Amino acid sequence: MSAGEAEPDLSEAERAGLELIRESGGIHQSDFWKELDISSRKGSRVAERLASLGLIKREDTVYNGHNTYYLEPAAKDLEFSLLMAGDMLSPFIGEEEINANSNSFSQWLMNLAYEEY
Question: What InterPro entries does UniProt report for this protein, alphabetically (predicted)?
């Protein structure tokens, strides 16, 4: 089961927890359950379930002198083909200044146009 398929089966607390982790970019489990206003026991179960579904990463850590877990969003499967035109990668990847009049951009657009036919 992929992460996208698992999300509809989440409880209200699990959905709220996943949203909190995604929005924060990562949170210690000791703060997680407090933010959700649930018990530490329920917070632990929510975190365990999200980790078992592959929606978050849960790693041992020490925080404020106590053993806890650090919860962070799991990396999603990325669709790199959206950046491709034929065998060319978008010329904008890694560029700080974008020049829409560049030759590489024109070639990339032409490859993209020819793919549709």
Answer: WH-like_DNA-bd_sf, WH_DNA-bd_sf
Using CB atoms within 10 A of its CB, is residue 48 exposed (0-12), middle (13-18) or buried (19+)? middle
- Chain position carrying tokens 């210690």: 28
Q: How far apart are CA 57 and CA 70, in angstroms?
A: 8
Read off the tokens for 28: 């210690």
Q: What is the pTM of this model?
A: 0.61
Q: What are phi and psi of 93, to 5 degrees?
A: -70, 120
Tokens found for residue 113: 């146009």
Give the residue from 25, 22, 46, 48 showing the smallest Cα distance to 36.
46
**Which phi and psi (to 5°) does residue 77 adopt?**
-70, 125
* Residue 80 C-alpha from the chain's centroid: 15
